[in-house]
Amino acid sequence: MLSCLSAVVASILVHQIRFLCTANTLGTKPFPGFENLPRSIWHELSSPFTEVYEVESFVTETGGTPEPRPFFEDPESNITVQLGTQVYMHCRVQNLQNTLKVSWVRRRGEELHLLTIGLDTYASDSRFSLAFEKPNDWRLLLRSATERDAGLYECQVSAHPPLIRTVHLAVSVPKVEIVDEHGATAADKFYKAGSTIELKCVVSNIPQPTGYVTWRHGSRTLNYDTTRGGISVKTDMGAAGAVSRLYIANANKKDSGNYSCALANVAAATMVSVHVLNGENPAAMQHGGTSAPRATFIFTVVISLSSLLR
C-alpha cells in the first residue's frame, strides 16, 4: 500500500514540475521561488521515474521464461495389422499449449486427406475416429482395416514450424491355398474309387491365428459331418499361419465336387475340384483324353528320324 501511495505522489510531483517547466519556458511566472531553479533539475527529477517505467514495461512484455516447445514422446513407427482388425495409431505429445492443435492426416503421394483436428473427426470414412487417452495420447482409431488402408499417416502439431510424426501402416492379408503333396496348387484332383481323398490347406500371412480352418464340400461343412463317416480333419496352428489336412476314406462318386477351406471369417476361401473315378485313367482325363496317344505318336516319329540320320 505504501509503495502504491509513493508512486501516486511521485506521479503528481512530476506533472507539477513539468507544468512549472512549461510555464517557465513560455515566460509566465509560476509559483514564487520556482523561477530561479536550474533547468537541469527537471531532468534529474523526471528521468528516473520515466526510465524505471519503460524498463518494467519491457520486462513484462518480453521477459520471463518462454514456454517449452512441444515434442513427441515416440519416434516414427511401423505398424502391421491383420486384415479386418482394428488398430490404434498413437501420438503422445508433451508440452502442448492450449493454443495449439493436434491433427491426423493421411498422405497419398502429394495429397493430404484430413482425418481429425483436436477432438473432432472430419474423415468421410466412419471407420476413422479420434480416441484420446489421458493425459496426452491423441490416438487415431481405425476399425476393420482393409488392404486399401495401408500407407502413410501423419500426426501434426500446429506449432511454428509444424511438428510432424509419421506412422507407416501395413495390412497383412492372409493367403489360403489347397496344395498337393508337392506343395503345388491345382484346380483339379483325381482319385480312384475306394481310395482315400487327402487335401492339404495352407494358410499363411496371418501371425498367431486364433480361428479354426473350416472345410466344405459344396455347401456342406465337413468338420462336423457325422452322416458320411470316414471323414477326419487335422489342423496345426503355427506362428505365422495354419496347415489343415482333410481325409475322406473309401471315396466314391458322391464325394466328387468342389471342396473349399477357409480360416474362420478372416481368410477368404479357396477351392479345388475333386473327381472320383471308377477305372478311368486320371492322367488321360485331366489332359482331355487325347494327350497320351498324341505323345506316343510324337515319340515314335522322333525315334524314326533319329534312326534315319545315323
Structural summary, described in words:
This protein is α+β, with helices and mostly antiparallel strands. It folds into 3 domains: 2-58; 71-172, Immunoglobulin-like (Sandwich); 175-286, Immunoglobulins (Immunoglobulin-like, Sandwich), CATH 2.60.40. It has 4 helices and 20 strands. The strands form 5 sheets. It has a 6-stranded mixed beta sheet, with no helix packed on it. A 5-stranded mixed beta sheet has the order 13-20-19-15-16. A 4-stranded antiparallel beta sheet has the order 12-14-18-17, with no helix packed on it. α1 (2-25) packs across α2. The longest helix is centred in the N-terminal third of the chain and has 24 residues, at 2-25. It is rod-shaped and about 95 Å long. Residues 1-5, 19-62 and 284-309 have low confidence and may be disordered. It comes from Lasius platythorax. Residues 70-172, 174-273 form the Ig-like domain. Pfam families: Ig_3, V-set. One of its GO terms (biological process) is synapse organization.
